Amino acid sequence: MRQIHRALLSVSDKRGIVDFARTLADRGVRLVSTGGTAKALRDAGLSVTPVSEITGFPEIMDGRVKTLHPRIHGGLLGRRGTDDAVMAKHEIPAIDLVVVNLYPFEATVARPDCSDAEAIENIDIGGPAMIRAAAKNHAFVTVVVDPTDYEGIAAELDANDGALSSQTRRRLATKAYAHTSVYDAAIWNYLQNDQETPEFPAELPVGLRRNTTLRYGENPHQRAALYRLPAGGSGTLLSATQHQGKELSFNNLADADAALECVKAMQCTACVIVKHANPCGVGVADTLAEAYEKAYATDPTSAFGGIIAVNETVDGELAQTIIDRQFLEVIVAPDYDPAALEAFGGKRNIRVLATGALQPTPPGLRLQAINGGVLVQDEDVAPLDTSTLRVVTRREPTPAEMEDALLAWRVVRFVKSNAIVYCRGGQTLGVGAGQMSRVVSARIAAMKAAEAGLEVKGAAMASDAFFPFRDGIDTAAETGIGVVIQPGGSMRDDEVIAAADEHGMAMIFTGMRHFRH
Q1: Is 213 part of a structural domain of the chain?
Q2: Could you tell me the end-to-end alpha-carbon distance of the chain, in angstroms, rounded to an integer?
Q3: Are 125 and 68 contacting, i.e. CB atoms less than 8 angstroms apart?
Q4: 168: left (phi over 0), alpha (psi -120 to 50) or beta
Q5: Same-domain status, 28 and 75
Q6: Least C-beta-crowded within 10 Å: which of 65, 70, 125, 365?
Q7: What mean pLDDT comes out for the span 145-169?
Q8: pLDDT at residue 197, as a whole number
Q9: Rounded distance, CA 370 to CA 74, Å?
Q10: One of 14, 136, 243, 347 is an active-site residue; which one?
């Protein structure tokens, strides 16, 4: 156990600091502080020694330099029983407790009017240096970076006559290094954001901050939590307002994200229904009600227990239609009118999420964990340049077929490989997902359309990757597909194109693949 005799407090987030400082002072702990923190403590009637009195040097450069001094860092890094003589020689007082949290860099740069100069001034230097020094010397020094820890520390001090255990000091040191790591990652993310990065960086700071602990993972025996990236912005699930319903599960979040990303890719009023991370129905129309009807009609069976995402405000009439027709886990929309919230209120288990205005997913990096490492790749958000589309068959697609093909192509990007999507008239007709064989995916898409009683004749078929053989085209022809859109690039492209010509189909090459694993 280690007694606390002197504490240094320097915080940007002043929640609870006065009460915590009073708890320390009541136990005879001498308080040392800087700037605004010292003022807050004095205003509360507490006795505070300014850092400048210990260093013998004033705070300078508008506060850029105040704690970067041997008498502060010696007090933090001095090993009791080893460095006592040198500390005494240089009149370095031992500091037993450091309470520091950092300039609000992330909140500052999140403001639309934040200038680069303001962002740079909100990069904390002295704070991280003190945190790291105290954390390194946690055998003797306690470091606190989170106001939510004050209560537990105060209780332990009360229980142990003003002392803290080595286990507590080590736990708080571990938390401190995570705190500075996330802080540095946020700064890195800001500084590199407007730079050309032709190569992946040799070192990639991620900076994850826990958003919430989840009930469990994909299965009840797995623990899980949701973490926030430094660049996590508006229009995402992490920033959404949950109006009602139980907390979101791991699977809810994965499926809702898949639905939201798909609907954000649509270029008009749209509804997406997702089941097990795959779109089972997508509809686009002039009204949200029509879009929902189209999406639901694709696969009413799979829509049961699914997740709905739309890209416009949900009104009361649509909300009532949804809850009268199907059981759903989650609905995600930019907003809801009061009548919609009232209607959903009758089904309290439905999780109702409002994201605010949707924005296209920006270019960036996507991370995927594997055992022992992380795969990093660019987000698959490159827009399709319609001027580069190539019609490779004798027959040209009609304007209506081209429109259907482009919708199918937008949807297939969000379907697990091997992916096949049938579309016509602003509606998905059948989706074949996650199969080991592309022709099997084509058969499943046809089967799903037949189950839903949807006519496929004349529809468009999208494939996320090239057809290795002509059998996928032959299967599509059996169901009446009129136009095929695919990347092309197979060694058997000539055979596949010939099959399309034989069946009187039009075929479009995009030159772009959309595998999704």
Answers
A1: no
A2: 51
A3: yes
A4: alpha
A5: yes
A6: 70
A7: 91
A8: 63
A9: 43
A10: 136
Residues 313-361 have pLDDT tens digits of 999 999 999 999 999 999 999 999 999 999 999 999 999 999 999 988 8
- Closest Cα to residue 109, out of 11, 194, 200? 194
Q: Is the dihedral of CA 232, 235, 239, 240 positive or negative?
A: negative
The whole-number pLDDT of residue 232 equals 62
For residue 352, give both structure tokens.
């109702």
Say what the pLDDT of residue 221 is. Answer: 95
Kindly state whether residues 394 and 450 are assigned to the same domain. Answer: yes
The question of whether 276 is a catalytic residue gets the answer yes
Do residue 269 and residue 324 come from a single domain? Answer: yes
In this structure, which amino acid lies at residue 23?
T
Residues 221-227: contacts with CB under 8 Å, at least 24 apart: 222/250, 224/250, 226/253
Domain extent at residue 93: 2-192
Same domain, 450 and 314: no
Q: What is the token pair recorded at 501?
A: 């010509």
Number of domains in the chain: 3
Partners of residue 196 on adjacent β-strands: none
- Give the least confident one: 139-143, 200-204, 442-446, 452-456: 200-204
Q: What is the pTM of this model?
A: 0.84
Nearest to 186 by CA among 206, 200, 212, 201: 206
Q: What are the C-alpha distances in Å from 91 to residues 54, 83, 87, 258, 283? A: 9, 12, 6, 61, 74
Q: How confident is the model at residue 198 (pLDDT cuts 50, 70, 90)?
A: low
Residue 427: Cβ within 10 Å count:
24
Integer Cα distance of 474 and 332 in angstroms:
38
Q: Considering the candidates 5, 14, 175, 276, report the single residue annotated as catalytic.
A: 276
Cβ 294 vs Cβ 281: under 8 Å: yes
Tokens of 113: 């009017």
* CA 430 remoteness from chain centre: 30
